[in-house]
Write a structure and sequence with these properties.
The chain is an all-alpha fold. The chain contains 5 helices and no strands.
C-alpha cells in the first residue's frame, strides 16, 4: 500500500460546497476530534456526514498536505485504493457498514498515491 500518511483524511467531491465560517471554527479553530478520529467514529449517516464536513474543512485549511489536488486525481487514487484493498476487505473492514467503507474510500482519495 502507498499511503502518504496514515493520520491524514479525505475528500472534496462537493465542488460547490463551502462550509459556513462557524463550521470551520468548529473543525479548524478548536477541533474536538482529529480527522482520523472522526473517520474511526463513522457508523451511520450522521457520523458519515460529520466526517465529510471535517474532511472538507481539512481540504480548505490544509490543501498542501493532500496527495491529490484535483478531483480527477482524488477519485483515481480512491478507486485505486479500492481495487488494491478489495474495497476494505484486506483491512479487516469487510463487515463494516457501507457508511464506514465509503468514508474510508474518501479518506484514501486524500492520502493514497
Amino acid at each position: 500500500m502507498n499511503f502518504a500518511r496514515k493520520q491524514d483524511a479525505i475528500l472534496i467531491i462537493f465542488v460547490q460546497f463551502r462550509p459556513k465560517p462557524d463550521i470551520l471554527k468548529i473543525y479548524l479553530g478548536h477541533e474536538l476530534m482529529q480527522l482520523h478520529d472522526k473517520l474511526e467514529a463513522v457508523i451511520d449517516e450522521a457520523t458519515f456526514l460529520d466526517f465529510v464536513r471535517a474532511l472538507t474543512a481539512d481540504r480548505l485549511e490544509n490543501s498542501q498536505e493532500w496527495e491529490n489536488g484535483t478531483i480527477e486525481d482524488f477519485l483515481e487514487a480512491a478507486s485505486s485504493w479500492a481495487d488494491d484493498s478489495e474495497f476494505c476487505s484486506r483491512h479487516g473492514l469487510s463487515n463494516a457498514s457501507p457508511w464506514k467503507k465509503f468514508a474510508v474510500f474518501l479518506y484514501c482519495g486524500k492520502i493514497y498515491e
